[in-house]
From TrEMBL, chain A:
Gene Ontology annotations of biological process type: phosphorelay signal transduction system; regulation of DNA-templated transcription
Record protein name field: DNA-binding response regulator
A GO term, aspect molecular function: DNA binding
UniProt KW Repeat keyword: no
Top-level taxonomic group: Bacteria
Keyword terms: DNA-binding, Phosphoprotein, Transcription, Transcription regulation
Domain Response regulatory: 4-121
InterPro entries linked: CheY-like_superfamily, NreC/VraR/RcsB-like_REC, Sig_transdc_resp-reg_C-effctor, Sig_transdc_resp-reg_receiver, Tscrpt_reg_LuxR_C, WalR-like
Keyword Transcription regulation assigned: yes
TrEMBL record, chain B:
UniProt cross-references to InterPro entries, sorted A to Z: HATPase_C_sf, HATPase_dom, Sensor_HK_TwoCompSys, Sig_transdc_His_kin_sub3_dim/P
Alphabetically ordered keywords of this record: ATP-binding, Kinase, Membrane, Nucleotide-binding, Phosphoprotein, Transferase, Transmembrane, Transmembrane helix, Two-component regulatory system
Pfam families with a match to the protein in the record: HATPase_c, HisKA_3
EC id: 2.7.13.3
Domain of life: Bacteria
Record-annotated Histidine kinase/HSP90-like ATPase domain positions: 333-427
Transmembrane regions: 48-69, 75-93, 100-116, 122-142, 149-169, 175-192
Name of the featured protein: histidine kinase
Domain Signal transduction histidine kinase subgroup 3 dimerisation and phosphoacceptor, chain residue ranges per copy: 221-287
CDD domains, per the entry: HATPase_UhpB-NarQ-NarX-like
SUPFAM superfamilies, per database record: ATPase domain of HSP90 chaperone/DNA topoisomerase II/histidine kinase (SSF55874)
GO CC terms of this entry: membrane
Gene Ontology terms, MF aspect: ATP binding; phosphorelay sensor kinase activity; protein dimerization activity
Species assigned in the record: Embleya hyalina
Length: 222, 431
């Protein structure tokens, strides 16, 4: 099964470069290139890609708002992977809160790029777990950050599900969680699915943000 | 006496040196000390003040000479000399209060010694002598430290008392009166001086704060500009790193040398990016960037029409004129040019609301010329414009941007009541 990718960036060199690099992978296909946020939103509706590589800074409509529009539907299938020149940036965090599934530095290597697309498409693990965790921990603790709208309530989770949620937030993949709890990976998948449904979250990145923002996980070391 | 002796023995270690220091302190205070400098605003008025004091003192002086000659029986010669010293000294006190006070005091002693008084009244001072002595003390207290004023007061009273006791044929209650007059005079003088000093300190403090603020503003502005420029570089660097990775895919069978070379380019770009991220992390401040700025690419002159349109939207008459062949310039120049025009426009909106604006961009062979000029604001709006203080921040930023690129900058009023900002940015070799 090939992963269908849409690239949204206002710089033609970046679009073409990523297209060449991703098309070189047998299991990834770039299906379109958008020049700005509005274009990206329109092309997602039209092409239904699995993953959108989204630049944050674009004219007309920025990447964060475009991400919000793309992932806003309840039935939105496309996952957004945010491209950034600067990591650990509050705008990257904004993008995650807006619904992005992960972020990637623009100067990532071809392997990192392909890996990121696959991980985000599969949704079994956080992308760059340590970095993502640090980003979320750093910005979730900032005073004045509005809490995530309480879509579902953490009280609705069972004890086991709460435990799984905190492990997700710590950046563990399904396989790692299964090994840690000594259960089958399929069981973990079921738990994760239930957590996302109960809390109305779209993926584990959002679950991690949720866990930090609702205080289930207390950032340490910052 | 025994009490003093006991104290001396008990605290000999401390009081001994303290007492020994007294003559030296007195010498420093009453001989060498310089008066406070006059406040800057007063310096120009010093001759006028001298004249004013001279006029005020003149009749007193005449009266004093008369008293010295007749009442104190000094005779014509010494009477005129000794009688004219105190008034002259008081005039001189405006410049140097300390010697003036000495002159008055010594004269007082001389008169007391030489006098053959016809009546015991007002001894050792003549009536006018008392007034002039008080005036000298007043000026001294006004211009010198309170300690010096207190010492001068004490010496004046002491010398007066000695003169009274040693020379007066009868007990004279005028000494108490003199002491009271001198004390009040010195007190008032010292209090006025204290108020002046406090005000000067306040002014100095305010100046310091203003200086500090302007320095901080400059630094903030530089940081903001540096951040923007670094940001532009970082974006270009990331494109280089992508392109270096893509290039081998574009040829059919890339040689090892080519791969190696491109890998080298990529490594360097990635290293440079890592450095840039560090610099930008340092430059990043909490509040410098509006959200919109980071969500959109750094602006270039291509967005000038958009900018002008926004200003027109605010109801302002903006005329744009572009001369020369329009072409893309180096990103730093493009960004700076856009920001300069942007700042200039917002300055006009702030300080000359309602004025018509003309924006000129000239693409020249070696540089980019910018000029933003506005007409005089409508008369009714002048008050509003004057009220919108706190300007200069924008100009500072423009100046800094131009300086960073090695260009020239000028701003100032133009005939007809308008204002203009002119900048010339060199293009360098990169474009």
């Amino acid at each position: 099964m090939t992963v269908r990718v849409l690239i949204a960036d206002d710089q033609v060199m970046v679009r073409q470069g990523f297209t060449v690099l991703l098309n070189a992978e047998p299991d990834i296909e770039v299906v379109g290139q958008a020049v700005d946020g509005l274009d990206a939103v329109a092309m997602v509706d039209e092409l239904v890609p699995d993953v959108v590589l989204m630049d944050i800074r674009m004219p007309r409509l920025g990447g964060i708002e475009a991400t919000r529009r793309i992932t806003g539907h309840a039935d939105a299938a496309a996952k957004v992977l945010v491209l950034t020149t600067f990591d650990l940036d509050e705008y990257v965090y904004e993008a995650l809160r807006a619904g992005a599934s992960g972020f990637l530095l623009k100067d990532a290597s071809a392997e990192e790029l392909a890996h990121a697309v696959r991980v985000v498409a599969a949704g079994d693990a956080l992308l760059a777990p340590n970095l993502t965790k640090r980003l979320i921990a750093e910005y979730a603790r900032l005073a004045g950050t509005p809490r995530m709208p309480a879509k579902g309530r953490i009280g609705d989770l069972t004890e086991r599900e709460t435990e799984v949620l905190s492990l997700i937030a710590q950046g563990l993949s399904n396989a790692e969680i299964a090994a840690g709890l000594v259960v089958a990976e399929q069981t973990v998948k079921t738990h994760v699915g239930r957590i996302l449904v109960k809390l109305s979250l779209r993926d584990r990145t959002q679950a991690a943000v949720y866990a930090y923002e609702c205080g289930l996980i207390r950032p340490t070391g910052y | 006496m025994s009490g003093v002796d006991q104290v001396r023995k008990g605290r000999g270690g401390r009081i001994g040196p303290a007492l020994r220091a007294v003559p030296r302190t007195l010498r420093d205070d009453l001989w060498r000390a310089r008066p406070d400098p006059l406040p800057p605003g007063w310096r120009d008025w010093q001759p006028a003040m001298v004249l004013l004091v001279a006029f005020a003192v003149f009749p007193t002086g005449i009266l004093g000479i008369n008293q010295a000659i007749w009442q104190y029986g000094l005779g014509q010669g010494p009477g005129v000399v000794l009688g004219s010293i105190p008034p002259l000294a008081v005039v001189y006190a405006v410049r140097r209060p300390l010697p003036a006070w000495w002159a008055v005091t010594v004269t007082m002693v001389l008169i007391a010694v030489l006098a053959k008084p016809r009546s015991p009244q007002m001894y050792p001072w003549t009536g006018t002598g008392l007034a002039l002595h008080a005036a000298a003390l007043f000026v001294l207290a006004l211009r010198m430290r309170p300690r010096i004023a207190a010492e001068a007061l004490a010496i004046s009273v002491l010398v007066g008392a000695v003169c009274t006791v040693a020379a007066a044929p009868v007990h004279n209650p005028d000494l108490y009166q003199a002491t009271l007059i001198f004390s009040v005079t010195v007190l008032v003088g010292a209090a006025l001086r204290g108020r002046g000093v406090a005000r000067n300190q306040l002014v100095a403090q305010a100046e310091l704060t203003a200086e500090e603020r302007s320095r901080r503003t400059l630094l903030e502005e530089r940081t903001r500009i540096a951040r923007e420029l670094h940001d532009v570089v970082a974006h270009h660097m990331s494109v280089i790193s992508i392109q270096a990775q893509v290039a081998p895919h574009l040829v059919d069978d890339p040689s090892d040398a080519l791969r190696e070379n491109l890998a080298g380019i990529r490594t360097n770009a990635v290293d440079a990016l890592a450095e840039l991220r560090r610099v930008l992390g340092v430059l990043r401040s909490e509040d410098d960037l509006s959200i919109g700025m980071r969500h959109t690419p750094q602006p270039t002159l291509e967005r000038l029409p958009e900018l002008v349109e926004n200003v027109r939207g605010a109801g302002v008459d903006v005329d744009t004129r572009i001369t020369g062949e329009r072409r893309p310039l180096s990103p730093g120049v493009e960004l700076s040019a856009f920001r300069i025009v942007q700042e200039a426009l917002s300055n006009v909106l702030r300080h000359a609301p309602g004025a018509a604006i003309r924006v000129e961009v000239g693409y020249q062979a070696t540089g980019l010329a910018l000029r933003v000029a506005n007409t005089a604001p409508p008369a009714t709006d002048v008050a509003a414009a004057a009220g919108a203080a706190g300007g200069g921040h924008g100009l500072l930023g423009m100046r800094e941007r131009v300086a960073m690129l090695g260009g020239e900058f000028a701003d100032g009023p133009i005939p007809g009541g308008g204002y203009e900002v002119v900048a010339r940015l060199p293009l360098g070799s990169g474009s």
